[in-house]
Fold:
Amino acid sequence: DDYEFDLNLLNITGSDTVTFENTNSDSLIKTLDLINVGVPISVSSHFSTIKAAGQTDKDINLNITADTNLSTTGSAKDLLVNANGKSVTLTSSTADQDIIIKNSNNTDITANSALRNLTITSNGDVTLRELSALQGNIDVTSVGSIIVTNATNVTGTLTLNNERAPAGTDITITDANSAGKVSIKSAGSITATSNNGLASAQIIDLTAA
Structure:
């Protein structure tokens, strides 16, 4: 059975926001599959999975109200998500410029096509799994743990801050060895010993509890 709602947004232009809502709480349709996304999208709390194929050189701009599994395809520029306090799991993304996620709970990111900058403001844990193409800056503010697994080509500034998290909440970096500047403030420990640590950083500012 197909429990997805599929829609082509190619001919929807000039709209401030397109809103998707399912008022039937018993409905099994919890996935939105949207193609040719080029206008801001707002999604009700019934939908927990969003597949968004962006138009070329347009941004994908999402407002979510439920814990969401998100994937994007197409040739979009930026991916912007207002999470409204909900968790975001980005399983894949072809957005090739900036990724901005604000007001999330737990945040889990895989986006190996993003090229420029990543900005996350989170009230929970943040895991950056795969950002191997990213070359700009990473800026994460969190009230939980922060894990950076693969950001090996980031040459800009790596800014990680979870100082408002409970005492003992750690920041762990596995691969960000090309970052030119590093600023980390942790409520717990800071670990960056793998893959030559922070070998390329010219400026390092670290504060650990």
